[in-house]
Structure formats: structure tokens, C-alpha cells
UniProtKB/TrEMBL annotation:
It comes from Parahaliea maris. Substrate binds at D278. The active site is at E199 (proton donor). The record marks H220 as: Important for catalytic activity. InterPro entries: A_deaminase_dom (IPR001365), ADE (IPR028892), Ado/ade_deaminase (IPR006330), Metal_Hydrolase (IPR032466). Keywords: Hydrolase, Metal-binding, Nucleotide metabolism, Zinc. It is an enzyme of class 3 (hydrolase). This is Adenine deaminase. NCBIfam families: aden_deam, PRK09358.1-6. It holds the Pfam family A_deaminase. The keyword Metal-binding applies.
């Protein structure tokens, strides 16, 4: 339709994408076969049927199990290339890929295999598809502070090719404060900072991400809206929120897309962006999500333009590069 071509034609950046969450069931089977790994599903349909979640942890258990088929740098390369091709079709011209090294190193997969596979796909995506990208290395917050420090040490040889660190996995019970020292160490190494906060966790976790981690972005941030002072502060500081509406629906952060607060966020002056989070698990890539929120919340074209602009100004691109995309 007219609207679909408007959305795909709008240049967009994706700021909140777990690359392991882009692993589609078809590729999962292919990699399982390639690597001689058995998976607990008989068919692609069976895999998709298992993607019925009632909260974040429910999803994470299945997501970490799915990542078990990833073994070699070729696997990471192929997964990322599949994402880039799909994102290019939706008009994504810049993508900031989160990856979870601990999900792999804890299974004995060398850090080098993970990152070199991703970096080679990023290079190929730029030359073949014209998509620029950068890497955000995420620490798993259900693991220890020491484990996060070990991960930062493993990344030492690649720090010039890692733009930022992030914080993901099970939120409640693992507050940002647990990672204050490792985020300070990452910052001292010149890395930029983001963290998941306020997806399932309370507004206090968003305050902690700001004050104790000193993040430049908040991933999700939905529950910040429960606190008027926090909402006003995020707006005043121009803090980017990387919101993931379809993820919020699938993980029951919202009960219906018609109750999604994306337009309320924009109305409160928050710098919200729209992202896919784990598109293979949540049933949609970026254009699907723009379309879904437009339909569910009655967003106007100017709102979609605003969201797309926010995705560049909120990116980790150097200011002049981001401005050139507007
Ligand atoms: C995630 Cl939606 C979400 N939240 C927290 N951690 C994650 N890892 C992958 N997707
Ligand atoms: Zn996420």
C-alpha cells in the first residue's frame, strides 16, 4: 500500500536489536544440521509454535536454547547477513547490533569466532547493501559482576571495533547498580554505554542506569512513565529510549498494542525510537512494527518521521554522520 511504501521509504536506524534474536527457525535448522547439533523441535512450525511467552524469562529460556546451534564464525556471519538483508528491505540504513558474548563463551565458543563472524557480515553489509552498522557488547545481568569483567577483558583486542556496552537478560533482581564498576571500566576504555531498564524492572532501575551507570540511552524504559519526575527528567535530558512495541506485546509488558504507550512517550517529549529487539521471536521486523503501532495507536505520518529522526539523533553515530541521515 501507499503507507507501506511510505514506511519502507523512510530511512531508519535500528538501535535495539539482539543479533541472536534475529535467528529465524529456518536458519536454526540449517545450522543445527551443519553443526550436527540436535534441537528439541521437529519442524519450523513446531519452533514457531513454541514462541508463546508470558514474560521475559519465558522468552529468555527459549532464546538461549536457540543460540546453541551457533558454533563457528560462519554461523555468526550467516545470521547477521540474513538480518541485514531483511532490514535493508525495510529501509534500515544503519543498525546497532547487540551481541551477548557470554551466551557463547560459556558454551566454549571462542569470543573471536563470535565477533569475527559478526564483523565480516558488517563489512559485507556495508559494501553489498549500503547499511552501516556498529557493535554493542551486552553483559548478561543474571551473571556476576566478575563474569562481566572477564567478558570486558576478552574483548580487549577488539575494543576499537566495539562502540558500546549494554546490559540485558533477566532484569528484576539484577539492578543496574550490580554493574556500576564494570560500566565505569568500560567508559574509561572509551566505550559508550546503554542498558536495558524499565522493561519489567521498576522506575528505580531507570534512575540507577542514569545515575550509577551513566548511560547515554535507555533500552525499553516503559516503566519510567510510572514516575512523573523521572519522565520529566528523561525528556529534559533528551535521553533516547529504544522502545520495542512488538516485543512488549509478546512478553506481556503491554496486554494489547492498542494500550502501547509509544504516543504517550512522544506526547511527554521523550525521545522514543522504534526497534525490533528479537525479530525472529517476536514476529516482525522494523517496517512491520512501524505499521503495527501506526494502526494500533493512530500515529500520523509526522509521528513516524519523528521516530525515524530520533533513531539517527539517538544513534551512536558521530553527530555529523547522524545529521547527514536526517
Ligand atoms: C532481551 Cl527483550 C530482552 N530483554 C532483556 N534481555 C534480552 N536479551 C534478548 N532480548
Ligand atoms: Zn532488548
Amino acid at each position: 500500500t501507499d503507507f507501506d511504501s511510505f514506511i519502507t521509504g523512510l530511512p531508519k536506524a535500528e538501535l535495539h536489536l539482539h543479533i541472536e534474536g534475529s535467528l529465524e527457525p529456518e536458519l536454526m535448522f540449517e545450522l543445527a544440521h551443519r553443526n550436527g547439533v540436535t534441537i528439541p523441535y521437529g519442524s519450523v512450525e513446531e519452533v514457531r509454535a513454541a514462541y508463546d511467552f508470558s514474560n521475559l524469562q519465558d522468552f529468555l529460556d527459549i532464546y538461549y536454547a536457540g543460540a546453541n546451534v551457533l558454533r563457528t564464525r560462519a554461523d555468526f556471519h550467516d545470521m547477521a547477513m540474513a538480518y541485514f538483508r531483511r532490514a535493508a528491505r525495510d529501509g534500515v540504513i544503519h543498525a546497532e547490533l547487540m551481541f551477548d558474548p557470554q551466551t557463547h563463551t560459556d558454551r566454549g565458543i571462542p569470543f573471536e569466532e563470535v565477533i569475527e563472524g559478526l564483523l565480516s557480515a558488517m563489512k559485507q553489509a556495508e559494501t553489498e547493501l549500503g547499511i552501516t552498522s556498529l557493535l554493542i557488547m551486552s553483559f548478561l545481568r543474571h551473571l556476576s559482576e566478575d563474569a562481566a569483567f572477564e567478558t570486558l577483558a576478552m574483548a580487549e583486542l577488539w575494543l576499537d571495533r566495539i562502540t558500546a556496552v549494554g546490559l540485558d537478560s533477566s532484569e528484576v533482581g539484577h539492578p543496574p547498580s550490580k554493574f556500576a564498576r564494570v560500566f565505569a571500566a568500560a567508559r574509561a576504555k572509551g566505550l559508550r554505554l546503554t542498558a536495558h531498564a524499565g522493561e519489567e524492572g521498576p522506575p528505580d532501575y531507570v534512575y540507577q542506569a542514569l545515575d550509577q551507570l551513566q548511560v547515554e540511552r535507555i533500552d525499553h524504559g516503559n516503566r519510567a512513565l510510572e514516575d512523573a519526575d523521572l519522565t520529566a527528567r528523561l525528556a529534559a535530558e533528551g535521553m533516547t529510549l529504544t522502545v520495542c512495541p512488538l516485543s512488549n506485546l509478546k512478553l506481556c509488558v503491554v496486554d494489547d498494542l492498542q494500550h502501547h504507550p509509544i504516543d504517550r512517550m512522544l506526547g511527554e517529549g521523550l525521545k522514543a525510537t522504534i526497534n525490533s529487539d528479537d525479530p525472529a521471536y517476536f514476529g516482525g521486523y522494523i517496517a512491520d512494527i512501524y505499521r503495527a503501532v501506526m494502526e494500533a495507536r493512530g500515529l500520523a505520518r509526522e509521528d513516524l518521521v519523528k521516530l525515524a529522526r530520533n533513531s539517527f539523533t539517538g544513534s551512536f553515530l558521530p553527530r555529523e554522520k547522524a545529521d547527514a541521515c536526517l
